[in-house]
Amino acid sequence: MNIIIIYLLLLITLLTFFLLTRVYKKELTASLTAKEYPLKFMYGTAFFLIDIFSFLRKKLFPNHSFHNTKLKNKLDKLYSGKNTHKIEYLLQAKRISYSLLILAGSIFIGLLYSCNALNSSKKVTSLQRTDEEDSYSLEVSIEDKETHIVDITVSPKEYDFKETLDIFEEYREEIVSALLGENTGIEAIKYPLHFISEIGDKGLTIRWEVENEELIDNLGQIYPENIENCGAATSVTACLSLGEYTASLTIPLVLVP
Questions:
Q1: Cα 200 to Cα 167: distance, rounded to the nearest angstrom
Q2: Less Cβ crowding at N or C end of the chain, within 10 Å?
Q3: CA 79, CA 71: separation in Å to the nearest integer?
């Protein structure tokens, strides 16, 4: 990731520098043709670098001459009677422009390569933990040579006491509603009860106990022949379990014939 940031900073710096200097000595490139000077749009930046380096060399080495006499002699022969200083200046700008283009291309290719390497070598640092036990199959490459399939089992999420208590309370009404089935209320039970074994998506399980098996069996069936005309009061208990915590929810019922 750090190398990608470095490449991005280099590209941004290079682009910013180009935008700030692209119009430097623009009058020198106004008459140049794009066919002969395809990179003339970069010459402003090149001119700026040439002048900066020339200024620094004069400051650091005032008694040393850096003029290329051999090149000047060749240019004088080729362009007799013309301003060879300008021609030499343009040649230097041309070389620097190509160098800058190669540099920008190299940085861009390095950025693409680093991004591709990052995507191909991503590591799984965490797996999603749900309320149920999950299994994952991961493809693992060892030094980009061997590939293995690794099976990983992630245990269910664990809740503390307060979280568990809140979950019990959250599903209280839903448990009673699911229990009633076709019945209209807990004081008018005449149809079979629905003993659900789990509810919600947090792993909450339920075990049921009945108070009077002569009125309601363990499957929730009602025995109307044992119910008096005035009805019969009884109850069922939902034994709730979530992880290491348990709780009981007793629901009073009135059975009617």
A1: 10
A2: N
A3: 12
Residue type, 77: K
Helices H / strands E in the chain, number of each: 6, 6
| Residue 165 in tokens | 């208590």
Q: Are 138 and 115 in contact (CB under 8 A)?
A: no
Return the structure tokens found at 209: 């106990």
DSSP 28: G
Distance separating alpha carbons of residues 252 and 257, to the nearest angstrom:
17
Contact in structure between 113 and 4 (CB atoms under 8 Å)? no
pLDDT tens-digit series, residues 29-41:
888 888 888 888 9
Instruction: Say what the pTM is.
Output: 0.43
pLDDT band at 160 (very low <50, low <70, confident <90, very high): confident
User: Once rounded to an integer, what is the mean pLDDT over residues 174-193?
Assistant: 93
Q: Which pair of structure tokens corresponds to residue 197? A: 């074994």
Phi, psi of 240 (to 5 degrees): -90, 140
**pLDDT the model gives residue 88:** 77
The three-state secondary structure class of 178 is: helix
Q: Give the pair of three-digit tokens for residue 218.
A: 């363990």
Beta bridge partners of 140: 148
For residue 129, the Cα-to-chain-centroid distance in whole angstroms is 17
110: its two tokens: 């390095």
> Which pLDDT score, from 0 to 100, does residue 122 have?
47
How far is the C-alpha of 166 from the C-alpha of 129, rounded, in Å?
20
Q: Give the bridge partners for 150, in sequence order.
A: 138
SS3 206: strand
Question: Mapping DSSP to helix (H, G, I), strand (E, B) and coil, where does residue 245 land?
Answer: strand
Residues in the chain: 257
